[in-house]
Design a protein that fits this description.
single chain, mainly alpha
Amino acid sequence: MDQVTLIMREFLAQVKIDPSHTVKVLYFFPMQNVMRIASLNLAHNTAIDNGIKSSDTSVQRFDKSLEEFYALCDQLELCLRLAYECLSQSIDSAKHSPNLVPTATKPDTVQTESMSYAQYLGMIKSQISCAKDIHNALLECSKKIAGKGQSQGIM
């Protein structure tokens, strides 16, 4: 990574900016750098082809700057996947987690989506029953696997 990108990352980490703006800033400069190097290389190769320059002068490597840009794109992809997973988990959590049960200490703050204590107990009992069913199914499956392993070992 070049020094400008590192400086920009440090600056953006210190200053709280909108995440979309951060992405624009962090990915605009590397893309601009890739285009600048490509332009310089194209101009250099054209000058060599036209006989204006010799090939002794060095130019920046395009493949290296392109790899840096692709590395940043991979990081962005991972961040987007993580954000999607977090959003999915949050949505699932909101859908499957229980609503609030009003407490006796604050009866004036009863919310419309809250459930009664009896409803809450019923839901918890069904969750415990479901967890027991899953546990029993896994236990049965592990016994079957262990039984097959022993019977195959005997033959």
